[in-house]
């Protein structure tokens, strides 16, 4: 069961302290390279201008804690890497409770959760704690220590290109900038890794696949600043992979266009698995589709998810874990949904019936020879496929039109092509 | 009452043993020629290639029965021509019950009905019986006799062309291959014959009408193989006429396109008669529209029916008769529905108001001279007609747009043309 | 409060005997010229051909009454100028009750209302009375006197052109042909006068505004016969202003096209004020939009109303007054609705984000620097504006697309333009 395999990869990646830059990203990418040997890692220097942004300094952290007057470490980064606000500047001071409180973040409504907070573009330091523990702090001096380094370095991302017969590309993007949280976001890299393996196994593939593992926002902007012209020319469909590992629901968020091939295929693939999947709108966006579909970039990138970011209670807290939230079943369901969408794109074709009027299926053994009240329904799917196979509609469009499962029709196409009464073009 | 006239024709045609070829077809067509002297009968030789098909051998049958050991004819083709599977090969044997049973067809759920079964493209023989009688058969030897001939001959069809001012054509097709059944399908030829007479009575007709009486499927395929290029160029609208003789409901089945003139006019004509008419989709098709609308043929052929084939309990059984199913009222209702659709097509025009701003209807006696609270509504239909008569919309489209009856508007157009403030183009 | 100002103007105009021609029209227009000094009055001679119509003779009336045998004036035009059928020919006769009755108009269902009746195009005379009083008439002789003059003269209308940077025009039309009635129609001229003042106050206006005060129907036809070519070329949006002074509801009637800028802006403006506003269709039309949107004229003129003509009980009777029907609040609401629509048209622009991918709002102080669970929603409106600002959609279209208030987005556009990351074109 590949759900277990993906869950295992999540577990291995879990403890690493990831951010948008730094050693944690590199360590994560090197583990992914072990899984995908052709994955290539790139570095972009701090300060590089990428559209409206600049690649920030690289951040690394070795140790962080809060000590009380008794010398007890009441908060320790070693216990949970969410305890420190991402990109915190170094500090080593004794401060009173009032001062400390200005640097604490907690969630009164989720008193046992550590929130996930970052401050990439304004220098500050802070600790994230459970509200329960914050309530217990007494009036005394506290020793706050963050041993971090924020200085020029690089931003890393990785790219895997799996060539196919066509130069047209299917683009898949996920991100590797979140520390120890599971659905958002170890599920994305784990499912994407598994999808990459699946694509590599098909040696007869039509499309070229471009798969990237990047830090969110600044990473996709950096990647687009280097590749957007090429992508605009070549990408015919694609998906942003995020929040795809819990087992509570399926979700879909459209591209800005809303009616691209990616959108329609995502809907069809989700309908096969769970027709009650949730449909969000472009106004609910919040991940890298914001960059991929931005005005002037205009890529056809849709998103297939399980529980969407911002929509489940554990989101962006320490409760988003590999026990209660992300499960092998959840990951496998997400993998299958994404695989279903990719399978349609990869196999889609334009069928054209090669005879005028209805073909005589009987003489080819494709039609019951005895006409009775019942036989009409038996060949209905095949006849419906044939009646719309005028060469102008893709098989996927025909499946939408006649309400038949795409893959069932794909089998029928093979039968009709073998019978030499149908031709197909890609 | 023309319902009686059509019912009388059905009664005359009833006993004839029709199939897709043979003497029964010719006898049927010769009776129709008596009604429509310009109807021309064509023959196509067995073996002729017609698209993906071949015209089959001609089938004729003189006698058929099952005799028991006591010499009693327990089944006799003379009693009901549905008793023999259509295109049965000859047989003359004594067989036991077990063997006989393999050649019997009955309907357990309709135990007093003889089913209608054919086997045009695979050679076999068989008898169709009521399930009641089948249950009564005892273990003994039976003498099965079918005196049929299946050998090269011809397939016949008939065509009537009624020329009009335009070379553009309205196409009407019905079929003459069903033996003794009433709604499916003596109603089609009977209503079509009456419609042909009605069209011939209008000596000022705009369109050319092409009316064919053919065997279903192989007949329409044969006809298209000879005429499809001409039809594609000239046919602007048309109807397949089938199952149009009972008095239980009205039905509509669209063309493959679904929004052709034929479709919209059929809907309008049915709405005038019974706004609760049943609407089927192209996926419910099952008659010669399958050929006329096939990819590459692409004719705008819709279907107006009473109870649709496959949708009424007596369908394709001996219960589909001229007593309980098809009635004079049923035929007349079907005739009127089809006539209504054809009347719209024939009379449709593009009205254009010839003055800018509203015309002064008052000075032409077309508007109440005293403006009161009430008068506004009285001339509403005329003003709505005028406001949309910009030359770009047909009268039929305007009737759809303003929700007024087409024929009421047609009268108003005449008034406005007489008043010299409206012009029309065809 | 400008509602009071408009109500005051209505009160001043109330007693004047208006019709489609005559002294009352001129007196009304001279009062409007006092309010709008640049308003220019035009005269068109009786008999002038205007499209399908002719400018009628000018009608003036000095006195009218019905006297009974006791010499008592039981009906006097001085009491209410609705008492005489508009365009009544002169009369001075003693007639009996039976004869008189043929010339009386009353409303049995509104027994205390005097109806408003006119007969512009057929010569007749008549009196309009309450049904209560009509019931009280006894069998005797009555002296009927109408001192009116119907002879060649002129039809008057007024036009105000307020130039803007563009030659493209916004067109506003209202009518000044109704005698003493309030919603239909002193509200139209009063609100239009106030709107004209409001437009004049904006010295930086983009569009040219063309505002006309005309008699209904014959006035708009006359105006179009002189100006329709210019209007077709220049008018981008416009409104017919009528029935805009009571405080009971808001209403919208579309242009013939139904989806013009005027239509969509009217809907947006009404939605801001009262999302339960009534929507009529083009089939409910009944005012000068009939001329402005006629085939061949085709102007994009929509109508914003309070209670629509024909839809409120006091319509076209003496009960349509300045006490119970038209109020300062009603007029102010109507003014604000129309002003809202015009403000959108005047300020609409095409925003284009000038950076690829999302702009970094943070470095410009436009984005919270600390990313938390909550901050996403705060900048939602700005991000949604940006994501659709691809230069192809107007700000108004974007507001429709993302469901945000137009004027809120207009403020955001200013912020983004100031931040130099957005450009706009008109």
Describe the protein's architecture and organization.
3 copies of one chain form a homotrimer. Chain A is an alpha/beta fold and 426 residues long. Chain A has helices at residues 2-13, 23-35, 97-101, 131-135, 187-201, 218-234, 261-273, 289-292, 328-347, 375-378, 380-388, 395-402, 406-418, and strands at residues 40-45, 49-50, 53-54, 58-67, 73-76, 91-96, 104-105, 127-128, 141-151, 154-162, 169-175, 208-214, 235-241, 251-253, 278-279, 301-305, 350-353, 422-425. In chain A, the strands form 5 sheets. The first copy, chain A, has an 8-stranded mixed sheet, sandwiched between helices. Chain A has a 4-stranded antiparallel sheet with strand order 5-4-9-6. In chain A, helix 5 (187-201) links the parallel strand 11 (169-175) and strand 12 (208-214). Chain A is elongated, with a radius of gyration of 26 Å. The two termini of chain A are 33 Å apart. The mean pLDDT of chain A is 94. Chains in contact: A-B, A-C, B-C. At the A-B interface, helix 11 of A face helix 6 of B.
